[in-house]
Amino acid sequence: MISSCLPSGATVDRLCGIAREAGEVAMAFYGMGVEVRRKGNDQPVTCADMASHDLIVRRLGEWDGSIPVISEEGAAPAHAVRARWQRWWLVDPLDGTKEFLTGNGEFTVNIALLEAGEPISE
């Protein structure tokens, strides 16, 4: 379980490990001319986005399945459900998909732990 206080160095290290692993998964598709589909907001999404999403959601669930995850590539629960959450993960598994597709290297994997709507940091 993740402590209710600010993250320890070990927690941050573990989280960075998940982000690195998700980045490696996404990079397997880099420069491959992957298929692009459009989300409802007309933003691109690729198999790299989804592979990174799947890994992050799986790893966070293995770590502490009691903390819900909202990911840009996943379906968000209704607001009435989310409003009751005190703590949750907020994930963008491949921020900068357009840049990923152009091959300019300006993209990231983003994972944040929020408590009462505020990011928790050291």
H and E string: HEEHEHEHEE
Write down the CATH class.
Answer: Alpha Beta
Biggest sheet: strands side by side, in what order?
Answer: 3-4-5-6
Helical residues, percent = 25-40%
Write down the domain tally.
Answer: 1
CATH architecture: 2-Layer Sandwich
Going by helix content, strand content and strand pairing, the class is alpha+beta
Quick one: how many beta strands? 6
The major sheet is characterized as: 4 strands, mixed
Residue-averaged pLDDT, rounded? Answer: 90
Distance between the termini: 18 Å
Please state the CA-atom Rg, rounded to the nearest Å.
Answer: 15 Å
Count of alpha/pi helices = 4
Tell me the strand percentage band: 15-25%
Shape: globular
Describe, in plain words, how this protein is organized in 3D.
This protein is α+β, with helices and mostly antiparallel strands and 122 residues long. It has a single domain, classed as Fructose-1,6-Bisphosphatase, subunit A, domain 1 (Fructose-1,6-Bisphosphatase, Chain A, domain 1, 2-Layer Sandwich). The protein has 4 helices and 6 strands; from the N terminus they run αββαβαβαββ. The chain has helices at 9-27, 47-63, 79-82, 97-102, and strands at 36-38, 44-46, 69-71, 87-95, 108-115, 118-119. The strands form 2 sheets. A 4-stranded mixed beta sheet has the order 3-4-5-6. Helix 3 links the parallel strand 3 (69-71) and strand 4 (87-95). Helix 1 packs antiparallel against helix 2. The longest helix is centred in the first third of the chain and has 19 residues, at 9-27. The radius of gyration is 15 Å and the shape is globular.
